[in-house]
Every structure is written in structure tokens, then in C-alpha cells.
């Protein structure tokens, strides 16, 4: 066992036996900050010696978005991927069969979406056990995570997987704390009762932040939307299914029978928040077959140009835009104009 893993286990053990109260809050804050730092070192270890990440884990990111399927062995991830994309991972009715990351691609509403069937995650992945560490490293690069659960035993598996992802700095269905952080060369912290591990910094709170939020400010955190796929609904009653439908972020389905896949695809589309922009060459009708797809956080005309080719923005004079983001059709706009889903655009060059 590496020294980093040993330190992590020591700190976790100390936190487990420390009572939570006002007197121990400062001490627990120190331990949490140490834990965050050590786990960050696990994700990005010092030096580059040793072997690579392992066969099958270096998957090139293609398409407009990447979705990672995470779950315990034998919950039906591979079957679900097969039904969605027609990509057949090696599937069998026993545990730990998928050994490498298997990519598949689907086209949905004009967008090209990469699906990754990640190997079965096991408890202790965040502490370097098995190949779970590599699985989570790939999960960090995804735009959306699907946690596939067996509907007959969902809660236990759900908590374990969330704990593993959390330990590697993945925050599910949450937003970054609205907190500013700037390191300084000298001086102390300008805010009292913040993360004790940061000794020289300016910290700005714009919302009611918890101690965990402050630890997240300085660190390698990623915030990823997540859908919980409750598989094997053919094994439960209608009454139980009605209850499951009320659980947030959940989609019940049967991968084996192909039930409710349409609902899953719709929810995937909602969570990815992709923006489709149609191009219109001068004097021609818009091309509605192959949209340029942008992430919701980068939807300006300049972002659109950069997605096509970086030289296009240098030659850019103005754009004509039709549809929701403009008052008049067409409307002449500059590079800073924000586009909306299914806008039509024509670029006019210098």
C-alpha cells in the first residue's frame, strides 16, 4: 500500500472516531482539508513514472458530449449500452466481465454523443483498490454520468458509488460554491473561520457556504450532472414503479426488454443542455440535417466560429441570425451575440 493511501486510511479512521460538535469542528475541518489534498494527489500523482493508465482506458473524446455509465458489476450497463448504440461489450450473466472502457456513439436530435461503458466499480476505488481508480479518472472527463443501479438493491449501491465519486472530487448534480479564492504571496486569510489549510489567500463569499464548500474552492473538483438509471423494473410491481417515478434524477427502465429507453434519452438530452445551431449558406436553405452543436456554457457567435475553424473568427465581419435569440428575422449581430437552441446562422466574411 502506498504512503498516500495509508495516510488517507489513517485520517478516515480518525474522522470516524471523532465526535462532531463545536469543540471538534476546527479539528475535523483540518482533517477534511488534508483528505481532500491527499485524494487530489491520487488523481494527479507526482511524476510520470510507471505504466500508463491501463489498456482500454485511454479513450479519445469524440462527438459533442461524453456520457459515462458507472455501476456495480452485473447491473445491466453493457446491455443498456448495446440497446442504445448497438455496440456490444462482452456481456455475461456474472460479475466483473467488462474489463476495459468500451466506447459507443449515438446520434440524438442531431448531436453525436459518445457513450462509455466503464468497468464495474467496486467499493474502495477511491483508495486505489482494483481498477476503480482508473474508472473514476475516466468518469471525471464526462459531461454526464449515468449511475446504473439494480432496482432490487439500489440504495446501498447508490451510496457506495456516490462516496467513491465524491472521494475523487466528482460532485454530482450540484453547482460550484459561489466563492472567490485568490492565493497571495504574504499575509493571512481575509476571512475568519475558513478552511484552515490555506494560510495566505483572499476568500470572497457570495453565498452561504459550508466548510465542505470552502475545501472545494481550492482543489481539483469537477461538477457533473448525473442520472440514476434503475434497471430491471420487470422484476418489481406497478405500485413500486409508481414510487420510483417520483425520485428526482431517476429513470426506471428494463435494459433487457428495452422498456422506457425513450424517457432515458429525453432526460439525457435535458441534462446535457446542448445547443444546436443550423448553418445557412448565402442564397440557400438552412441545413437542418447537420447542426453545429455547442455546450450551453459557450454559445456565442464567436464560440460557433471557433467550433467550425479558428480562422473563421479572423475573417468574421458580422452574422445574420434567424429564430429565438433575435427580435427580427434575420438580424445582424456581432461575435458576442448569444445563440439559442435551433437558431439559424449565416456568417458574412470581411
TrEMBL record:
Domain TGS positions: 273-349
Swiss-Prot/TrEMBL keywords: GTP-binding, Nucleotide-binding
Record protein name field: GTP-binding protein
Xref: Pfam families: MMR_HSR1, MMR_HSR1_Xtn, TGS
PROSITE patterns per record: G_OBG, GTP1_OBG, TGS
All copies of domain OBG-type G, residue ranges: 65-273
Gene field: DRG1_2
Amino acid at each position: 500500500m502506498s504512503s498516500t493511501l495509508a495516510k488517507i486510511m489513517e485520517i478516515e479512521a480518525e474522522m470516524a472516531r471523532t465526535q462532531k460538535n463545536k469543540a471538534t469542528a476546527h479539528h475535523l475541518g483540518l482533517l477534511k482539508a488534508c483528505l481532500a489534498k491527499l485524494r487530489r494527489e491520487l488523481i494527479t500523482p507526482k511524476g510520470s513514472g510507471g505504466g500508463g493508465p491501463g489498456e482500454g482506458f485511454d479513450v479519445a473524446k469524440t462527438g459533442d458530449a461524453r456520457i459515462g455509465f458507472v455501476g456495480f458489476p452485473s447491473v445491466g450497463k453493457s446491455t443498456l449500452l448495446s440497446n442504445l448504440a448497438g455496440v456490444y461489450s462482452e456481456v455475461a450473466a456474472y460479475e466483473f466481465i467488462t474489463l476495459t472502457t468500451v466506447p459507443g456513439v449515438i446520434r440524438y436530435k442531431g448531436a453525436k454523443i459518445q457513450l462509455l461503458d466503464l468497468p464495474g466499480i467496486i467499493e474502495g476505488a477511491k483508495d486505489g483498490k482494483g481498477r476503480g481508480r482508473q474508472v473514476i479518472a475516466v468518469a471525471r472527463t464526462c459531461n454526464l454520468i449515468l449511475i446504473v443501479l439494480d432496482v432490487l438493491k439500489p440504495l446501498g449501491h447508490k451510496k457506495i458509488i456516490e462516496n467513491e465519486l465524491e472521494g475523487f472530487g466528482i460532485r454530482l448534480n450540484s453547482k460550484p460554491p459561489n466563492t472567490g479564492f485568490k492565493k497571495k504571496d504574504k499575509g493571512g486569510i481575509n476571512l475568519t473561520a475558513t478552511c484552515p489549510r490555506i494560510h495566505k489567500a483572499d476568500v470572497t463569499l457570495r453565498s452561504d457556504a459550508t466548510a465542505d464548500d470552502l475545501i472545494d474552492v481550492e482543489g481539483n473538483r469537477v461538477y457533473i450532472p448525473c442520472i440514476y438509471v434503475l434497471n430491471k423494473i420487470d422484476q418489481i410491481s406497478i405500485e413500486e414503479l409508481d414510487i420510483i417515478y417520483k425520485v428526482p434524477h431517476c429513470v426506471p427502465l428494463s435494459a433487457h426488454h428495452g422498456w422506457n429507453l425513450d424517457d432515458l434519452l429525453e432526460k439525457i438530452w435535458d441534462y446535457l443542455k446542448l445547443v444546436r445551431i443550423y448553418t445557412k449558406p448565402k442564397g440557400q436553405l438552412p441545413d437542418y440535417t447537420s447542426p453545429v452543436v455547442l455546450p450551453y456554457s459557450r454559445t456565442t457567435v464567436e464560440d460557433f466560429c471557433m467550433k467550425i475553424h479558428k480562422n473563421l473568427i479572423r475573417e468574421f465581419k458580422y452574422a445574420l441570425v434567424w429564430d429565438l435569440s433575435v427580435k427580427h428575422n434575420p438580424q445582424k449581430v456581432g461575435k458576442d451575440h448569444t445563440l439559442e437552441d435551433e437558431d439559424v446562422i449565416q456568417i458574412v466574411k470581411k
